[in-house]
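note to self: the first set is below, dont mix up w the second
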Amino acid sequence: MSKLSELLNPGEPLPEGDDKARAVQTMFDSIAPRYDLVNRIMTFGLDTRWRRRTIAEMNLPTGSVVLDIAAGTGDFCRELEASGITAIGVDFSLGMLQSARTEASLVQADALNLPMPNASVDGATCGFALRNLVDLEPFFNELARTVRPGGRVALIDVGVPNNPILRFGHGIYFGKIVPIIGGLISNPAAYRYLPKSVQYLPEPPQLLGMLRAAGFSDATHTLLPPGAAQLLVGTRDD
C-alpha cells in the first residue's frame, strides 16, 4: 500500500522506506501544476525571500556551478541563474520537472544517488525537501561526494518558531489552515501530508551533527524570520 491518500488516513503511521519514496514521488507528480501557486499563497510570498537568503548565505562567486536538489518547478534554479550562478536541477518527480519554468539543465534522479562525478560542483542547494528523503545521512554523504573541497551547501526546510506565541500561531496555521488551502487548490492528501511530514525531520542539533560528520564541519543552523523555515549552511572540508 503506497498511495498517499491511503497512507495518511487518520491514525495511519507515516510511510517509511520504499513506501515513502513511492508515495512522495506520486504526490509531487500530482501537485506539480499548481505547486508554485500554493507555495506563494501559504507562505505569503516569504518562500521567495527565503530562497534568496539561502543563495546569499552560500556566498559563491559568479560563474559557480550549483546543484539544486529536489529542484521541483525550478524556483531555486531561477534564483541561482539570476545571481550569476549556473544551476543544475535534480528531482525525483518527473511531473515536477515537466512543469519546471527554468532554462537550467534538469535531470530526473534520486537525491541519494546523484548522477554527478566526485567533487564536480561548487555547491548545492535543497529547498524544503529534507523531510521527504528516505534517509538523510546518505544524502549528506552524497553532498560531500559531489561538492568540491571549499564548496558550499545551503539546505532549507520548514522550521518551528522559538517564540511561544509565534509557535502557537504557526502550529494552528501550518497544521490546520495550510491543508485546507492546499486541498482547495490542489491535492488534499498531499497537503494533509505536509504538516505531518515535519515528524521526519530530526531536531536541529542532530541535523547539524549529521551534516558535520559528512564533511561540513563548520555547518551552522539558522531560523529564518518569522521562524517558519530553518537553514543549514556548510563548507566542504578540504
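second set (the one i keep forgetting abt)
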Amino acid sequence: MDPAEIQTAAAAFEAAAARGEYFPQAWFGRLAVDDAYRILLARLRLRGVVRMGWKVGLTARAIQEQFGVHEPVFGCLLADGFKPSGHVFRRDELIEPGFENELCIVLGRDVPAGATRNDVTAAVARIHPAFEIIEARGDLTRQLALALADNAQQKAFVLGAPIRPDALPELSEVEARMCINGVEAATGRGDAVLGHPFNSIVWLAGKLAAFGETLRAGEYIMSGSFTRQFPLNRGDRVECAFVGIGTVAVSIA
C-alpha cells in the first residue's frame, strides 16, 4: 500500500472503531502485516494521542503456542493507558479483558537499529514490574494483521515501583510468580522472553527502522510476557512478584 492508501485505510479503521467494529470485516484476509503496522501508526497520528513508548508481544513460547504465531509483534503505549500498581479497573469499561506479566523498561538514551544487547543494557534508565492489560477486540489468531492495526490488543499498562539498573538481578533468571485471587496461577522466567528481556528491545529497534521510527530516550518498552496470557474477570485481584525486582498488582470491579 502506498502512503495515500495507508491514510485512507487509517481513516476507515478509525471510523469503524467509532461504531464498535475494531476488526473491520471488509478487511478480513486482505491486510499484510507491515501495512497493518503502518495503518496503526497513521491512526495514532490522526488521533493526535501522546505515545509513551512501545510494547513487544508474542515473545514467550507459551504465548506463541497459545495464539499460533512464531515471531514477536509490536504495538504502542499511550499516555492515557498508564496506571500505577493497585489500580482498579471497571469490568464494564473493558472489552474481553486479559493480562500479561512483563517488565517495563525505561530508556535513558536512544537505541538505534542494529543495537546489541550490551547497547540496550547501557541504555536502560530503570525497570518496573508490570502488567499489560489487553482487550480481545477481535480474533488475533485468525486475523493477526487486523489485531496489529488495532494496536495489538493494547489497553493499558500498570507499573510497580522502579528498580535501578545497578540493582538488577540477572534478568534471564528472574522468576515471575503470578497469583490470581491469592492462588498461584503460573510461574515463568526471564529467559522465556526471547532468551532475555533486553532481546525484545534489540528486536524492536531493528523492526521499527523499517517504519521510520527509532527508540528514544525516555520511552517505556513493555518486554513481553514471562508466561501465557490470562483472562481478567470481574472481582479478580491479580499480583505478580518478580523475584529480586518487585511486585505489581491490579484489580477489576
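remember for set 2: The chain has one domain: 50-252.
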